[in-house]
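Need residues for this backbone.
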């Protein structure tokens, strides 16, 4: 079993640690680095995983998972470059950052796999997309996919699609949370107690997600099955169309894709 080091245990780094532990990986096969000692101590207390220096992470781990904000990548790669061993596999979770950036900054030939995961890793329901860098072999990709499949589903995509993936499934959970939040507000508007509105919407979301995952029906059919002739749902759909919700989603996801491209461009030499 490989040892995995998470470099930058913030939101997604913690989700990965938590998901891997939850899937049965022992804490002794994990470690992480963090900038803030209080945050590091809190994570060790919560998960029993050791906080280490970047140097120790590079020595101890076969898989180095970079999970810092794209804006923080340069100092981390500068620190990592002289420490990295010939057998290290680098995995980037960072939005927008191309594998070529890592390949330029790290020793020649370092294998890099770019991944776009999402936070449902916390409940072993992540959607992760993986792409091989120039020096990553199919075996490297299989290693990374095996780790990620213990915390959710994995798909391999060409790296050219990663900005779109980032906008769709990387950020995707936020759109669903936003929708749920707005629907709970609607319940409040209609006079329901908040706790009741929350329960109604969260369980409806869980049920709808399960139907989407388990049935062979297209989402359009699932929606049509709810929409009775001259009933309530069609009145709501008319308002959604009138307010351009579909167009808003297309524009929103396009804007997220554009930001991912921009984050990568910020590191062009
Ligand atoms: N959140 C998400 O849903 C997803 C995030 N990602 C990607 O994951 C990366 C992290 O995102 P997210 O977890 O949201 O961000 P966070 O800011 O929550 O996590 C990054 C963590 O890394 C720390 N850090 C920064 N530099 C270093 C360093 N040199 N050594 C050790 N720790 C360091 C940060 O400290 P400090 O607090 O001081 O900044 C922070 O705690 C991003 O690149 C993002 O694009 C990908 C998919 C989903
Ligand atoms: O918002 C972000 O930039 C990160 C990447 C995908 C999800 N969260």
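Answer:
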């Amino acid at each position: 079993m490989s040892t995995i080091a998470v470099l930058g245990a913030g939101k997604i780094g913690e989700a990965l640690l938590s998901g891997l532990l939850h899937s049965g990986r022992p804490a002794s096969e994990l470690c992480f680095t963090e900038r803030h000692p209080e945050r590091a101590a809190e994570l060790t207390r919560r998960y029993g995983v050791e906080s280490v220096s970047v140097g120790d992470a590079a020595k101890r781990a076969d898989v180095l998972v970079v999970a810092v904000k794209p804006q923080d990548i340069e100092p981390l790669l500068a620190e990592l470059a002289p420490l990295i061993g010939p057998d290290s596999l680098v995995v980037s979770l960072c939005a927008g950052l191309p594998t070529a950036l890592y390949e330029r900054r790290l020793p020649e030939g370092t294998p890099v796999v770019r991944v776009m995961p999402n936070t449902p890793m916390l409940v072993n329901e992540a959607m992760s997309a993986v792409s091989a860098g120039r020096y990553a072999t199919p075996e490297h990709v299989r290693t990374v996919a095996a780790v990620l499949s213990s915390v959710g589903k994995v798909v391999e995509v060409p790296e050219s699609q990663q900005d779109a993936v980032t906008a769709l499934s990387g950020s995707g959970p936020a759109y669903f949370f936003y929708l749920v939040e707005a629907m709970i507000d609607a319940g409040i508007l209609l006079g329901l107690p908040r706790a009741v509105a929350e329960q109604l919407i969260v369980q409806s979301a869980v049920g709808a997600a399960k139907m989407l995952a388990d049935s062979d029906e297209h989402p359009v059919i699932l929606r049509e099955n709810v929409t009775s002739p001259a009933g309530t749902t069609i009145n709501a759909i008319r308002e959604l169309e009138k307010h351009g919700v579909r167009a808003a989603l297309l524009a929103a996801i396009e804007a997220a894709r554009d930001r991912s491209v921009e984050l990568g461009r910020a590191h062009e030499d």
